[in-house]
Amino acid sequence: MKLGERREHHETIGSTNERARELAEEGAEHGTLVTADEQTAGRGRQGRTWVTPPGVAIAASLILREFDDLLPLRAGLAVADVAGPDALVKWPNDVWLDGRKVAGILAESKASQWAVLGIGVNVAVDVSALPEDAAEVAGSLRRTPDDVEPTLTALLAALEKRLGQGRESVLAALRERDALLGRRVRWQDGEGLGAGIDESGALRVDVNGREITLSAGEVTLSAHL
């Protein structure tokens, strides 16, 4: 079944990921899509919220029965494909355009049974209308509300392609769109310079001439892109 061939749409929902998890547990097929015009309790990484104003953004969650450990990065690439040639993937789960965050990704899984891939994209969001903490970093594709559905259609097609792509090709594409390469980054235990993506999809960081890798966790830029 193609991604999104089965779709459950809501005018308003708390979290598309929560609904998709319920459907996954009930046995929903690979590719089942949950979308909403407005999301009131969307979740991001580290327990953060993801604001989805009505009618101007993609709030979508896919149920996948076939996936690998590169899933969040594959999704980031798919969003970047749709966002345009200047869009960058900020490891591990954001997409940036013109130095601002235009999309967030949250992948959750239950062993090898299922994964729920949540994607939020600011298609036509008026950033100035967002809460202050979100407005500081948020950006938009600067399209119109009428472009939300066509952008979702394009995203599903791009994601289908990226999910079927070999690891080496995915990693090569990530390296071309690496938002952190050569930039000073911080994480809970330290600070260093982004030094690329390794063969496992982990972030390489140069810490005073010594290279380490980060396989998970929150990474922030010392200054905006």
TrEMBL record:
Region (Disordered): 1-50
Domain BPL/LPL catalytic: from-to ranges: 1-171
UniProt-listed Pfam families: BPL_LplA_LipB
SUPFAM superfamilies: Class II aaRS and biotin synthetases (SSF55681)
Cross-referenced PROSITE patterns: BPL_LPL_CATALYTIC
The entry's keywords: Ligase
InterPro entries associated with the record: aa-tRNA-synth_II/BPL/LPL, Biotin_CoA_COase_ligase, BPL_LPL_catalytic
Compositional bias of kind Basic and acidic residues: 1-29
Tagged with keyword Ligase: yes
EC numbers, comma separated: 6.3.4.15
Broadest EC class assigned to this enzyme: ligase
Name of protein: Biotin--[acetyl-CoA-carboxylase] ligase
